């Protein structure tokens, strides 16, 4: 009988029997564990020096501030009471030296950073967690270098085209979950700048031209994101509406125009979500940088909107210590030029009161408590690809706008098609994405890898990268029409593309307009002779359908020659499938434009994009960042938003200009009729009406309510004040009630610094777009 040893198995409670041969293995294991112990001790020593593995959390917090029955504010104050000035200041600036920010010669960024856009080490002594920030406007970014997967959602403008709070909720919740799963606890997303400049390279990151639509959607998105235990952020505050010269442009805008439109989007977003952070923008507003602009930060955001969270600067957007701190900036990102030692000195000299530093720290810590960073530390997981695919496809289907559909050309009937030409925009392999810090690395990399730079040529800059997400429209179309011959032509030669179109029953032309942070598009015209391509194909085939993958509104000189136009924006990782579902009618489109598509440049408030002028002298060629050797043209210039209140459709209405496709426009495969408008005044005005599906398919109509204010108000002809998305079966009629927040009927009185409802005659309009409003009723208020 062999000798056995026994030891209790603590997990099962049973005695375990072991063979002597196993002992040898155990001895080897013991040596190994000793070695690993030594290693672990080494690692612990590193951790004790304030470094650690990427994503290592601070030890669980202990102390009276962990009492969950106290409010976030009480808990923050208890914690602040334990902190030294140095510790407080350590929370007020980033530690990154990426991109030339931060003190030259400073030690490399701490290793606990997960490699997101921003990192602020916590304070292990007090259990204050590291702040791990990631850009996440349309999904979690910078996955590739770390081998992390995240869902590439359709762009924000697509989300906005759904006009659907449920879609916004799902969008925010997915981003929040994926951030959390990857160990991040703060998002840098939530773009809410209005489309004053439709050539803006970041329109795809924003939510259109109307403040109420943008504000409601970003509010819902941030609420959902924060429910995942991740701090949300709304940006870029404020009036950062062009990328050209974004660090040097001084925006001139009157206070009322700002409050009634641009800032209102932020106000609604902040109030609806209780968002934890607001990022101030690069530009100057009326002479002061946004990140040291007291009116924007202190007076409007913190005082009037009641924002309780913290303001962080855009990356490199801090320009001073005392001025910025006293104007309301709470955190310098991503470096430490102004809010580290310089701030400590300013406190010691009395330039910045210690109480202001306490307020900055309070705002950060109360947000961390309120959102759950202390109570629910991240529990890292592998991101659910399946959930991501499902949400991404649904958003794309709800956000793709059917702009034109002559003679019911769409949906396509697969059984009646023998041949389909699919043309252009790499639609054999992918769909386009937006560039810059919002770009999400797609799984498997760029579907259209760029050719290596020619010998001696510089590599493409970060903002010049063009990335295609691997979701093939061609493949998805082939799946919908298995019996048709579906052929692809790259569209680079219009003659060859037209020849294929001529021999096909239908031609689908994919069009692209790459846009990116860091640069605006030069004009509303499509690049790369694509207008010529569409015209050539349309001349060869009467049944030409155009699918747009653009970040901005574009001019369409060929619109009368084609039979259908679909705006898919940058549709994300399931874009191909979503487009095919709409083309073949498995999904009935319901999206509406959140931006006006003008006919031509000449119709814009600023027909020419205002560019930064060349340096006036050598003095203009300097570094925008102290300590950096990088020199650039820092000459300031102005953009005067003298169109004031007339943003987007309000401009076209006021100026009597006919757009190509108006704000709120979007077709369906069915039709709707409106009736029975009633308007009941009161502290909250109620608007009721009926919508009927008069066609043969189920669909969803986005019914829109606009109001014309009394002439004495000096407002543009009408403003959007509410909407409702209504699902309707064929023939079904539904009553709809839209309750109007009185703020949405108000105007900002800059002299009194307050909101008021102008007395007089109002008109309520209801219908399916800003220029298709069959119902209207007059009402008198306040007389
Ligand atoms: C962008 C921000 C972004 C930050 C961090 C800046 O250049 O304007 O939107 O969050 O970089 O990547």
What does this structure look like?
The protein contains 17 helices and 31 strands. It has 783 residues and is α/β, with parallel strands linked by helices. Strands 12-19-18-17-13-16 form a 6-stranded mixed β-sheet, with helices on both faces. The longest helix is centred in the N-terminal third of the chain and has 29 residues, at 20-48. The N and C termini lie far apart (105 Å). Residues 1-52 have low confidence and may be disordered.
Write the layout of secondary structure elements.
Elements: E1 5-8, E2 15-18, H1 20-48, H2 72-80, H3 85-90, E3 118-120, E4 131-135, H4 156-161, H5 165-181, E5 186-188, H6 211-226, E6 233-237, E7 249-252, H7 255-273, E8 277-280, E9 284-285, E10 288-289, H8 294-304, E11 310-313, H9 322-327, H10 341-348, H11 354-371, H12 385-399, E12 401-405, E13 419-423, E14 431-432, E15 468-469, H13 473-480, E16 485-489, H14 494-502, E17 506-513, H15 530-540, E18 544-550, E19 564-567, H16 575-583, E20 621-622, E21 632-633, E22 637-640, H17 649-655, E23 672-680, E24 685-693, E25 699-708, E26 719-728, E27 733-740, E28 747-749, E29 754-756, E30 760-767, E31 775-781
Parallel strand pairs: 4-5, 6-8, 7-9, 7-22, 8-11, 13-16, 13-17, 17-18, 18-19
Antiparallel strand pairs: 1-2, 3-4, 9-10, 12-19, 14-15, 20-21, 23-24, 24-27, 25-26, 25-30, 28-29, 30-31
Helix pairs in contact: 2-11, 5-6, 5-12, 6-7, 12-16, 13-16, 14-15
The structure holds beta-D-glucopyranose.
Beta-D-glucopyranose binds next to loops.
Rounded radius of gyration (Å): 28 Å
Count of DSSP helices?
17
Q: What do the pLDDT scores average to?
A: 91
Percent range for β-strand residues = 15-25%
Separation, N- and C-terminal Cα atoms: 105 Å
Structural class: alpha/beta
Instruction: List the uncertain runs.
Output: 1-52
> Widest sheet: strand order?
12-19-18-17-13-16
Molecules bound to protein: beta-D-glucopyranose
Helix fraction by DSSP (H/I, runs of at least 4): 25-40%
